[in-house]
Each structure stands twice: as structure tokens, then as C-alpha cells.
User: Fold these one by one.
Assistant:
Number 1:
Amino acid sequence: MTGPVLELSGIRKTFGGVTAIEDFSLEIFPGEIVALVGDNGAGKSTLIKIVSGVHPPSAGSIALDGQPVVMSNATMARMLGIEVVYQDLALADQQAVYMNLFLGREPLTALGLLDRRRMIAETEKLVKELDVRIPSAHAAIRDLSGGQRQGVAIARATHWASKLILLDEPTAALGVAETARVEEIVRSLKKRNIGVLIISHSLDQVFRLSDRICVLRRGKQIGVRDTKATDKNEIIAMITGLKQG
Amino acid sequence: MLEEPIHMTTDTRDERVRAVPTLSRLLARPELGAVAGALLVFAFFAVTAGGSGIYSAKGIVNFLEISAQLGILAAPVALLMIAGEFDLSVGSMIGFAGIAIAIPTLAWGWPIWLAVLFAFAVCGFFGYLNGLIVVKTGLPSFIVTLGSLFMLRGLTLGIMRGVTGRTQASGLHEYSRDDWITPFFSGQVLRTPVAWLADLGIIGKRADGLPMITGIPMSIIWWIALTLFCTWLLTRTRFGNWIFAAGGEANAARNLGVPVARTKITLFVFTALAATLFAAIQVLVTGSADTLRGNLKEFEAIIAVVIGGTLLTGGYGSAIGAMFGALIFGVVQMGIFYTGIDTDWFKLFMGAMMVTAVLFNSYVRNRAMRNR
């Protein structure tokens, strides 16, 4: 097996006098899905923001494919191959699916104009590969259901991520059937050899999807478990502080 | 209970991709309401004022000139509104740009071309300030530019009275007549084809035997060129995509690396420059400047843009729609004049027209959506 795609070691983040994250270390391998769980305020979102370049860590190091990186903003993280699927999805409602997939990174023709044909073709290919069920690449986002929107947001991340996708509560607002669809899409990312870090409040989902589970409690890393070698009771005990490490 | 998935199909088309019928695609266009409205008012005045000459060459150029003036503002205002912002200072900017051309010419002895470029530079800078304040403070642009609406008008009055002692300036023709820049704003084009059409009898002649019109005013050319430029910008360029994104979901756009702030500031500069163009045409055609010029133009432009199908909330709209909105405006204004109805009724009509157009637009859009 190759080395980890993402390697966090000794990450610490303080906001003024408040310590949000202390001494966090985690490796994510290509094709692996790691779940990040913890109670509200445990520091999960802060951690996502650190990995996606929004907040620089106060201490500790981040390495991508073994190369240490310093990311000063989100654009840099994207350039390095890290994509985030945000809770609010970050889609332009009135715009077509294909425009959203390429928003901010539109391909241009030789004349410097928008290359719509290429955007549409690549969108259709991707949507097919990921089996995202949308009516058409031309459909406007506002005409799609919540699950379809989430599918588009994940498709966009998949298209651009060469190394890592961060999913922040991808199914929080979805119904049962739609959640199942999104989970299928997330599972299909493994085949692409991309590392996935997912935040979820649903332990059922975590156990369905992940290879390993990392538990945070009040900014402290309680432990990492192989999903197969643990059970819900242990994870709940770790989340609530009944069990240390 | 035997259920086997045996729905093998030879059709290579993805069953999830359904072709959207052309008609419902057409109905979902933002311009539809404005085009329909334009046809409606054309037909209305053909019936009520058909014999009065509104559709003679002279009548057409008359209403097109009115439409053109408004349309020059409406196209950039449409882009700004699609980006989710308002510019209420456009009208005051016209007044300011007028005196920014008149004062250097009359009081400082500058050539007209330099005065016009000066006006563009100063107003462009004010547009930049508008944009910068909106983007940096996060205040609604409605408030920020409402402030500039008053400030610019006050500045215009104060400077004009301070320098010249009056609120109007005339006699600019004397200075502009031989300037190289004048034909670009107040000139006419297509004189030869117009004369030719007059000889053929297609364009009517006046009693003294001269053709009714001698050419197409430059303002109409500017209007069409600006509309085409804005449409091209919106639909063909990356910047255009950013305009839609900035208005639709600014946060999302920012997260994805779209320079939202820069996009918006650029558009504020653009509306300011359009106001200056409006003023330059007006000053050079009439030969005068007045501190009250441009009053209420900001709202007329918004009316044209909204009739044209652009959403007040941003993220959706078109420059072509704004062009038809401006066309309706011109036709109605001249049409009321030609029918002999008291022109006092014009504003009542335009206001009602706007509300009707918006209702129509949203009704049709919802219908088109449901048909999908």
C-alpha cells in the first residue's frame, strides 16, 4: 500500500485564549473513508477548516503525499487537490448544473471565451460515472431535490479533488432515500483512490460508510478505531467521555 | 413475487436525461415578458395612433432615441442587478458628469474631448468608491448608493454654483462643433443609406422636399452596441459567469474562488461610466448642462431592467431583456404623445406596466418550471 495522502501531526489550534484543537494527528490513505465524530463543539468543523486551508493551524504540520505543505487560504488547498463539500452546498441556485461544476474554474476556448461544450460534456460524463440522478446537465440547481443538489456538490468536489475530499454533514438535510443515494456516491469515491474525511452526526451512517473512525471530544483526540474492530457502544462511550482512548 | 430486472433497452440515451421541450425552454427565458410587452404596446399604438406618424421614420427615430438613452443605462444596470446589487446614484451621476464636462470647457478653457475624458475618469472613480464601500462595509448597496444619490446631487449643485454662479450652462455647441470627439456622441451614422432610402420613397419627406431624417443618431448605436457587449459578457465570458454567481450565491462563489468583490466593484464602475456616456451624449446633443439632469433615471433604468426579466434578488436576468424594457419605455412615452393623451398619464402607465410585466414573468416562469 502507498503512503498516506494526508498526514496531520501534532495539529493545535487556538483562537485567542481558547484551545479549539490540541495535539491532533491522523493519517488518511488513498481510497479510504475516515469518519470524524464528536459532540457539538468538539472541534470537527475547525479541523475541516484547517485541512481546507481556511484556518492555518497554530502548531503542528500537514503533509500531502508525504510533502509538508503550508496552506494560507482555501484557494491554495484547492490547488493542492483538496475539495470541501460544505453543509450549505455552495451552489448557485439559478445556474445550470454544468455552470456550477465549473464555477470559478471555467474552461476557456482558444479565444478566451467560456467553453460550454466542454463543460457540458464533462458534466454528463461525471454525472454518469457517479450515477448522480439529475434530469440534465442544463437543469438549474433550484429545480433539483436536496439529494440531487448534494449529488452535484459531491460531483463537483470529485471532479476537482485529486487527493482529498472533506464532507461536512453531507446528509444532514436529506430524507432516507436521498441519504442512501448520497452514501452510494460517497462509497464510489473509494474507487477513485481519493481520501475522504467525513463529518457525520449519524453513527449508523458512520458505520455504514467508514473504514476508520476518529473521535474528538472538546478539542482532544480521544482515539481512532477500525470500524470493523469497534462497535457503537464503544464509539458513544468515547464521544461522551465515558471512555478515554 | 418474482420481480426480475429485465428492462434491457437498446436505447443508448440515458433514461434520466429528458429532453426539455423547446417551447418550455423558450418560456423560461427572462426576456419573454419584455418581448411580449413590446409587441403589445407596438400593436396598441398602431391601433390608437397608427395614422399619427408614430411609425414613420421620424417617429421611430424619436422613440428609439428615448429608448436608447435609457437603454444605455439599463444594460450595465442589468449586469449589476444580476450581480445582486443596486446603483441608485446613476441619475445623480448623470447630472454630475454633465457639469464635469461643462465646467472644464467653459471655466477652464479645456477642449471638449479632454473634458469628456475627465468626466469619465472622475465618474468612474466615484463608481469605484460606491463599489468599494459596498464590498468593504457589507452594507446593502441600496443604502450606500442612496447616500451617493444625495451626495452627488449636492456636490453637483455646490460645485456648479460655486464655479459659475448658476445651475445651468449653455452654449457648449460653440466649443464642441469642431472637436474630434463630438461625432462619437452627438453625430449621426448611416447617412448615405438613409438618403438612398429617402430617394426610393421608403423614408418619407417633409413638405420642403428634404427627407424626414438624415441619419441614425449615435445614441441608438451606443445602445445596441452596449446591449450586445453586455450580452456577450454575460453569456460567453468567465466574468459573466461570475456575475451570475455573485448575485446568486455570493458565499458559494467566494468559497469556490470567484473574485466576488472585484466583480461587483467593476460593475459599479461600469454603471457610473454608462451614466457618463448618457451625460456626454445629452450635453453634446443639446449643447447645455444642467444640475438637475438625470433626475429619477436610476429608477427608470431599474424599471426597464425589471420589465426585462431580471430578478431583484440577483442571479438571474438578461441584458437583451433590459433592451426591450427600454424599448417599451420609449414607445409608450412617444405613443402617449402621439395619441394625444395627456402625457401626465405616462408615469402611471409605466408603473403599472412594470408590475404587470413582473407578474407575467414570474407566472410564466413558474408554469415553464412545472412543465419540466
Number 2:
Amino acid sequence: MGSEADTGIESPDGAANPIETDYEIGQDNIQTEIGPFGLDVHNPVFMISGLSIVAFVFLTLAFQESVGPMFNDLRGWLTSTFDWFFLSAANIFVILCLFLIVSPLGRVRLGGADATPDYSYSGWFAMLFAAGMGIGLMFYGVSEPISHFSSSIGGTAFGDDGMRTDWAPLGAAVGDADAAFDLGMAATIFHWGLHPWAIYATVALALALFSFNKGLPLTMRSVFYPIFGERVWGWTGHVIDILAVFATLFGLATSLGFGAEQANAGLDFLFGISVTDGSKVFLIIAITGVALISVLAGLDAGVKRLSEINMVLAALLLLFVVLVGPTMDIIKGFFTSLVAYVEYLPALSNPVGRADTNFSQGWTSFYWAWWISWSPFVGMFIARVSRGRTVREFITCVLIIPSLVCVFWMTAFGGTAVHMVSEGVTAIAEAGLPIKLFTMLEQLPMHAITSFLGIILVIVFFVTSSDSGSLVIDTITAGGKVDAPVPQRVFWCTFEGLVAIALLLGGGLGSLQAMAVSTGFPFAIVLLLACFSIIQGLRTEPAAVGPKSEATKADD
Amino acid sequence: MYQKMLVPVDLAHIDKMEKAIQTAIDLATHYKSELCFLAVGTNTPSSVAHSPKEFEQKLSDFAQETAGESGLKVSADAEIAHDLATDLSKILVRKADELGTDVIVMASHIPGIADHIFSSHGGYVASHADQSVFLVR
């Protein structure tokens, strides 16, 4: 008879405090055959989200002309009416995470007191980073610092109604290049630093806690058990899960749109392949194809391996820019930007009474909504690979380290570009958003190689977002089952590509962003409730006792 | 002729495995070989178990229940996969070697059109394992 010694599981999971419920995972699932393929899906969630997405793709493609302006109005209305809400919500997530690092609750271990991590630090970190930021770093790494720098140095401007018409953050910095640089970097880091990672960390922690420690299925609804009780298995839960699917799908499609736009612009820049709808659609199809291969290969053989390749390529490009660019300025810039970030953080994150409405609504609210719409996807993915970490270790690694990497990335790329602009290279400032990265690389030696590497990176980031996203949506729509039949992943992976295509054709990036923002709004409310659940859940957990801790030794 | 027999089981679909398990017990009795039950689970909660620990317990209970009375030497081995849907077949082949088994008896469905695109687990094991494989359909 098998004793503990000859089983495949290396260590016991130790103390945890599971939630008692009569719900059986998969009890609402339908297992059926469609044609030759077996399916195992959560009935209402899969049906409603699947059918709405299919309908959405067809309607958007059918009414391409009229949907564009509608999406843009929607985005404008949401980000200007609810800017205070988005900004306050993000601040709450940051405060919650920082609190958990220092509080005794941080000692709780995900997966039970004696659980051991599934992945090494490098594999874990590569996956959470590739999923979390991805294409955005490529798209905005050069363009955002430049935009904020230029608008800051341009100073403030007022319209007839006394409202600010400039896009500068806070009070701008007219004519003062150093101050404008600091302000621009602080604003960029603000959008890529603690706040987005706090949003991810919150969602990921909630999912990991309620799944690994409480024994509930790995899906958004489980997080709300402390609030809604058994009702989470009914329509309350269905609505939460469907919202999560929509948010993920549109958040992903936005990124895929950015990726297609930038990869196409890069190819045009390098090889003269013209920027047309046709070539973007072709790119999305080709890249979705690679993502399909990756999801079919699975988490370890596909997603993890690609994420690691991705990290190596990104590190190479970063290293190149640091060494070939103004090295000392970048290193100095890293520290001055960090200081500037801390200095401007209270003013930038202030949710009410802002004079710089264009900046706080057009940039900050949009970003927060976008991060929030991404959060179920990134959060669930991070949760799935984070079993065995303590809460403190988890938040430090998901919040602090990626934030610092983002600061370094932004100072290297943005700092170099701003440096070039102030030395009189006007091409970068004049180039369109997707092309700014390549115009900057052109100023450095070996630009043919680095630009090509840049395009490859955009594409690999694109693939790593798309494949991990498919896994996540599949899990949510299978009622938390991570072992649902493979054809379902193929369905979601394909539809991510189709949604991206539909939105690109029906109004371009504007509609993509609008949909991301629109699904981010309801989901932000869901996340605020999740904060309460996390505290509730952690308080009922026994504190971690690692393999080396005294409590475990006493057992031996 | 056979020393150790590997019997992969799906704890979520025990009802579909009766025939395969009976075949395994009969064969093992005949050759007086050791029976080794293998189940692969996930580290997230599933319909079978809420944690890897519970999964392991369920498998060992199941092994005892099914073959405890046969008088054979019975062992149970639980393995946790990161991505069960894609890794299962590969894990079965790997475990067959690691556990030192010389024959695999497992349930498989009747091949259909879909098997040309997504190989069945049984089909994969039969084409990749070094051991003799008995697929029960």
C-alpha cells in the first residue's frame, strides 16, 4: 500500500483552513460532444460569454462605419465621468498590498502552511512579467516618456472655458528641460509602477488564496464566498465570471491591437511592408497561429518556454540600449526618476480636484481601466503559478520587483529618447506612437539588428499574452477546471484573434481601448469587493510554517 | 512474465474504468505481478479533491478498495501536473519508466475523427512507451 514516501507529492501541504461548501467543482458543467470534439464547460458562463463574443465580432464587422465613433464616445464618457473612481480604486489596491507586506497576515502561505513552490524564481518571474506588461512596454517604452516630456516643457494652455487644453501632467514645467524630464518620467513610472502591479497582485492573491487554501474552484466567483456565501454558485457568481471573461477578452484584444499596429509599423519601417488593414489582419492571424501552437503544447512546454525566451530577448535589448546609449545618464536617470516618482506620487494619484484633466482622464484613467480589465487574466495566470509562496514573498515579487524593472526599462528607453530629443533629434518627437521605438533605435548603431529584435519582441510578447489569456478564459468558462479538453483553448485563442481583428477594422485602436475601458469599469467594483474578501480570507488562515520553521521541526 | 503493472486511473471518471481495472486485476493475478495505480491531478481544486494531499489520499483509498482483497501487492502513486490537459500522456509514459513497470493496462475510447487532430491518451502511450500496452476499449 502506498505510504507517503513513495507518492509523487514531495511535501505535505500543512495547515490551511478550507471553506466548507456542498458545491462540487464541475457540478454545473455540461460535458458533451460537438461533432468529434469533447467539451467540458460551465453551462451559463460559457454559453453567455461565448455567444455574446461571437455576436459582438459579427456586429462590429457588419457595422464597421458606425461603431468607431460610438466606442470613442463611450470611452470619453467613462474616463471623464468616473476618473475619480478609477484613481481612488487603484490607490486602495496599492495601500492594501503595502499593508499586507508589513502586516502579520503576510506570513500566510498559499497552498497551505507547508506547501512548496511549483516554479523556480526565474521561471515564475518570467511568466508573471511576460503576462503582466507585455506589449505595452514595447509600445509605450519610448513614446510615453517623450509625450509627457514634450507636453510638460510646452507648459499649460487654457481653452475659452478656462479648462486646461494641454496634456501635461500636474502643473507642467515650462521651458525647464530637467524639471520636465523628471515630471515626465515620474508620470510614466506612475502608470507602470506600483499601481498596475498592485491591481494584478490583488486579483492574483485573491484567486490563489481562495483556490489553494480554501479549496474553491480557480475562478473569480470563489473570491466572493465570504461576501455572498452559497449564492456565488448561482447567478451572482455567473455574472462575476462573465464580467471576468469579457474584461479579459477585451483587455487582451487591446494589447493584440497594439501589437499588430506596432509590428506592422516596424515592418514598414524596416522592410517597407505598408501599413494596411490587410497586413495587420494577416499579422494577427499569423501570431494567433503561433499562440495556438503554444497553448496546444501546454503550460510548461509552450507558455513557460516562450516567456523565458521573451525575457532573454527583452533583457538583451535593454542591455544594448543601456550600454550603447548614454549609459551614465541612464543609471543616474534611474535614481533621479525614482526620486521624482516618490516626490510626485501623492499629487499624481490624487483622485479629486485635478486641474490637469486631459492628463488624469486621458492617460491615467485610461491606464487604470486598462490594467483593471487585464487583471482577471494576469491575476489568474499569476495565481496559477504561485502556489507555495507566502503572501509577503508573493506581494514583494509581484509588486516591488516588477515595478523596479519597469522603472529601469522606462528610464533606459524613455531616458535615451528624451536625451536624443534634447540633443536636437526631432525625428523621434515627430514619429507616430507605434514607430517611436524604431526611430530611437535608428539613432543607435546596428539599428537593423536591434529594430528586427524589437519586432520579434513585440510578436513574442503578443504570443505570450494570447496563449496565457486563452488558458485563463478557458478555466473561467469551465467553472474553474484547469484540465478541460484542449479544443476549448483553441476556441478561445481563435476568438481573441477575431475580436482583435473585428475591433481594429471597426474603428481601429480607439474602439479597442474603449472596450477595454468599458469592461474595466464594472470590474473595478468587483475588485473593490475582493479587497474585503482577501482580508477576511487571510484572517482565517494559519500563519505559514515553512519547511525550516520551528513548528515543522516540532512535528518531526 | 510481468513483474510490475502500471494502471493509470482517472479518479473523476471511475465509472468508465471498471472494465480496464478488472482486466488489470485478472492479468496481474495470472502473472502474479505487482499492481501500481497511477493518477494525475492538478494543484488547483478539482471535482476529485481540493488539494494535492487530498488527491493522494483518495487515490490510495481507491487502490485499497479495488484491489485490496485480491491478495496482490498494490501500490498507489499520485502525480501533480502543471497543465493536465496537455501533459497527461507524457507524464504517463515518464512514470511508467520511473516506477520500473513492464506493462501498462489502461482504458481508452474508441478512436474517432478527432483523434487525427488531438491524439487520445491511450494512443499516445501505446506509440511512445517502451512497455507493453494493453488498451481496454
